Amino acid sequence: MSDASPSGTGRDQVDSTRLQRMARAYCDSALLWAALDLRVFTEVNAGASDVAALASACDITELNADRLVSCLLAIDLLRKQDGRLVNAPDADRFLVRGADRYAGPWMQFTRPDVPGWMNLTELLRSHEAPKPLGMYADLTVEKARAYHRATSSIGMGAGRRFARTVDLSGRTHLLDLGGGSGAYSIQAVKAFPGLRATVFDLPPVVVVTAEYLEQHGVGDRVGTIGGDFTADDFPACDAIVMASNLPIYDEAVIGGVVAKAFAALEPGGEMHLVGEMLDDDGVGPLDAALWGMQEILYHSGGKAHRRDQVRGYFTDAGFVDVRDHEFVPDVLVRVSGRKPA
Ligand SMILES: C[S@@+](CC[C@H](N)C(=O)[O-])C[C@H]1O[C@@H](n2cnc3c(N)ncnc32)[C@H](O)[C@@H]1O
Questions:
Q1: Hey, whose CA ends up nearest to atom 9 of ligand 1?
Q2: Topology classification of domain 117-338
Q3: What whole-number distance in Å separates Cα of residue 17 and Cα of residue 14?
Q4: What is the best residue among 135, 147, 202 to mutate for testing ligand 1's pocket, by most ligand atoms within 8 Å of CB?
Q5: What are the strands, taking DSSP E only, across 205-260?
Q6: pLDDT at position 11, please?
Q7: Cβ(134) to ligand 1 under 6 A?
Q8: Alpha-carbon radius of gyration of the chain
Q9: What's residue 147's pLDDT?
Q10: What is the mean pLDDT of residues 237-245?
Q11: What percent of the chain shows pLDDT beyond 90?
């Protein structure tokens, strides 16, 4: 029998480096946020190509710039090219202020949650019953505006991807459940000329949705309904998308929403649920597990759902041709189904 261990001892090499790295993983978030606050990627993109130039552009001391650059090089947010500092490709695309794809607000979205995560042990010990709407129970228009400043900075890209990968050319009315900024509807009506859409979201949110619809010039083709998708009825439609709200609710709620969606669809209509999902065996991806855990901070009943569970909500409701598709690998999955004609 061959010996696969590097040491040739027949035993796996086990050391503590992975655990030590994990114990300080919070440093990655702190570095990313500080670099965003100081506009490091924006300044590097504009030509600050060494520590001294960056120190001056960001108004920090050279000592602190040197510390920061060492860390950002090590975590591959900055790189060295011919001795000059440059942004890593993803940092250059998404972290430069003013650029079309700037996603800084999304990267800071969970920053206020840090104290909650550092209190995780206590939260896990709680035996209190979950609150039905979690963080959305006391939403105001102002809070919704700040929230969707972040989601829209990443959601418009996801919406574009949806419109590229799902052919809605024969459809006339898309219902966008929990549509938030309207990202999916905006991109869908832009891509499919015969389509109109309705964003269904909580009453304070649709005030903000209307602002995005105007800004994108689609106010005449996308309408809004203020309501609670766990409790209220849906309008008739021939296509439904529900994106990025799966971990906010438990199995019973999501199953109920999918059943209501089935009832609202015309025969032959289609539904797409895009969300962070665990694999069928429940082992990762981490992002899905973390969004499920995040709900503990808001005392909701939300949790991570597996792909096979989501397919089950669809088949239990009566959908056929139920499939899951990679949407953004390791981040988002799309489950689709069709109502029989
Ligand atoms: C993370 S955002 C996703 C927004 C949008 N679908 C996107 O992908 O950009 C989740 C949205 O679900 C909405 N939502 C959560 N619970 C809801 C409910 N019970 N009824 C209606 N909308 C809800 C929230 O208000 C929020 O706009």
A1: 155
A2: Rossmann fold (3.40.50)
A3: 9
A4: 202
A5: 222-226, 237-243
A6: 66
A7: no
A8: 23
A9: 95
A10: 98
A11: 94
Burial class, 124, CB count within 10 angstroms (exposed 0-12 / middle 13-18 / buried 19+): exposed
How much is the pLDDT for 47? 98
* Ligand 1 centroid to residue 2 C-alpha, Å: 54
Q: Is 54 helix (H, G, I), strand (E, B) or coil?
A: helix
Per-domain boundaries in the chain: 17-95, 117-338
Mean pLDDT confidence for 131-157: 93
Architecture of domain 17-95: Orthogonal Bundle (1.10)
**Mutation probe of ligand 1 site: the residue of 136, 166, 181, 300 with most atoms within 8 A of C-beta:** 136
Pairing of strands 265-275, 237-243: parallel
Please name which of 169, 220, 177 lies closest in space to residue 202, comparing C-alpha atoms: 177
Residue to mutate (ligand 1; options 201, 232, 295; most atoms within 8 A of CB): 201
Determine which residue's CA is closest to atom 19 belonging to ligand 1: 228
CA dist 312 and 319 (Å) reads: 10
* Residues 1-41 pLDDT 10s: 444 444 455 567 899 999 999 999 999 999 999 999 999 99
State whether the beta carbon of 245 lies less than 6 angstroms from ligand 1.
yes
